[in-house]
């Protein structure tokens, strides 16, 4: 036993030395009066060290759980815009059963190969190897850069395509808003919009998350008769007697700038800069 102890200590000689020095120092500190400055500082430092170690351990240990919850939250947003989210929905199960993720080359509108589960479009938009700087005159959504490849989600009922969920983003008044636009299989009729990540003022621009406002989008059309992006928000309420009412959505009261931001991001992402090539293929090829 003695030999083993000696051997361990010999093997970690330097460590043993540090430990001995630490013991001597700790004993000296503990023997000091509680009012002494040296003891107060030493105890505060020791406490900081213990807390730092605990926080670091917690961060490392909780990382897998954080990643899982982040992915789960994204699936929830997608199911929500697809109209497949109820209170008792098993998110993982419903997502696996009904949603298929695909990667789309925005320039050609073609599907491309790649690890669709691992691909993160928001990260790709920040990576010079995967992104594209948007010329200022075309950057109506004020996003400066975009990923060349987008991750879209197809909602299927058996083998039949039911809807297409497209990622969209653009600047409002205070923040870049991120969301999804769900279109029916015709690539033209809106099913729903979900701007799940935004920093607009609650009660004003933040009303983009209001279910009543979101419901106004259902059935609206994206492209006009000449193929132009006609879908936009109006100031106030839509005049339903007008022939273009099917392309218009009520603006948010007291939030003209956020409303303009939503119009701009729709105009951008539905144009040739965004998903026009892809949606064109969907419309012609089915
Ligand atoms: C504290 C504060 C927060 C605001 N937040 C928003 C906002 O989130 N979105 C927005 O468009 N306008 C917001 N506004 C209002 C704008 O400054 C601007 O007045 C408004 O967009 C004009 O729209 P209106 O013509 O509908 O009133 C905010 C104003 C204040 C004072």
Description:
The protein has 286 residues and is α+β, with helices and mostly antiparallel strands. It has two domains: 2-65, no CATH class; 90-285, no CATH class. The protein has eight helices and ten strands. The protein has helices at 2-11, 13-31, 37-81, 91-98, 121-124, 211-215, 256-270, 276-285, and strands spanning 99-105, 111-112, 131-133, 145-147, 149-157, 160-171, 176-184, 190-197, 232-234, 248-250. A six-stranded antiparallel β-sheet has the order 2-1-5-6-7-8. It has a two-stranded antiparallel sheet with strand order 3-4. It has a two-stranded parallel ribbon with strand order 9-10. Helix 3 (37-81) packs across helix 4. The N and C termini lie far apart (78 Å). Bound molecules: flavin mononucleotide. Flavin mononucleotide (FMN) is lined by residues 173-174, 200-201, 204-205, 254-258.
Task: Write the topology of this structure.
Elements: H1 2-11, H2 13-31, H3 37-81, H4 91-98, E1 99-105, E2 111-112, H5 121-124, E3 131-133, E4 145-147, E5 149-157, E6 160-171, E7 176-184, E8 190-197, H6 211-215, E9 232-234, E10 248-250, H7 256-270, H8 276-285
Parallel strand pairs: 9-10
Antiparallel strand pairs: 1-2, 1-5, 3-4, 5-6, 6-7, 7-8
The structure holds flavin mononucleotide.
Residues 173-174, 200-201, 204-205, 254-258 line the site of flavin mononucleotide.
From the structure above, extract its key features.
alpha+beta; 2 domains; two-stranded antiparallel sheet; 41% helix; disordered N terminus
């Amino acid at each position: 036993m003695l030999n083993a102890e000696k051997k361990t200590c010999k093997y970690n000689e330097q460590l043993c030395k540090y430990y001995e020095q630490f013991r001597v120092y700790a004993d000296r500190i503990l023997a000091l009066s509680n009012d002494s400055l040296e003891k107060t500082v030493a105890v505060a430092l020791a406490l900081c060290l213990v807390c730092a170690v605990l926080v670091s351990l917690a961060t490392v240990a909780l990382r897998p759980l954080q990643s899982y919850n982040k992915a789960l939250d994204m699936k929830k947003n997608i199911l929500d815009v697809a109209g497949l989210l109820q209170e008792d929905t098993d998110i993982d199960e419903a997502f696996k059963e009904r949603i298929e993720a695909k990667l789309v080359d925005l320039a050609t509108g073609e599907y491309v190969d790649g690890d669709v589960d691992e691909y993160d479009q928001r990260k790709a938009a920040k990576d010079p190897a995967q992104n594209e700087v948007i010329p200022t005159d075309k950057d109506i959504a004020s996003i400066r850069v975009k990923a060349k490849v987008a991750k879209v989600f197809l909602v299927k009922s058996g083998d039949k395509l039911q809807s297409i969920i497209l990622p969209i983003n653009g600047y409002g008044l205070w923040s870049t808003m991120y969301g999804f636009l769900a279109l029916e299989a015709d690539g033209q009729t809106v099913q729903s919009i979900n701007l799940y990540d935004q920093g607009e003022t609650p009660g004003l621009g933040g009303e983009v998350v209001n279910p009543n406002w979101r419901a106004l989008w259902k059935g609206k059309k994206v492209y006009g008769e000449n193929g132009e992006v006609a879908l936009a928000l109006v100031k106030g309420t839509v005049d339903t007697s007008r022939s273009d009412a099917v392309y218009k959505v009520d603006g948010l009261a007291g939030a003209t700038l956020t409303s303009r931001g939503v119009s701009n991001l729709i105009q951008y992402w539905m144009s040739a800069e965004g998903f026009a090539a892809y949606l064109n293929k969907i419309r012609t090829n089915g």
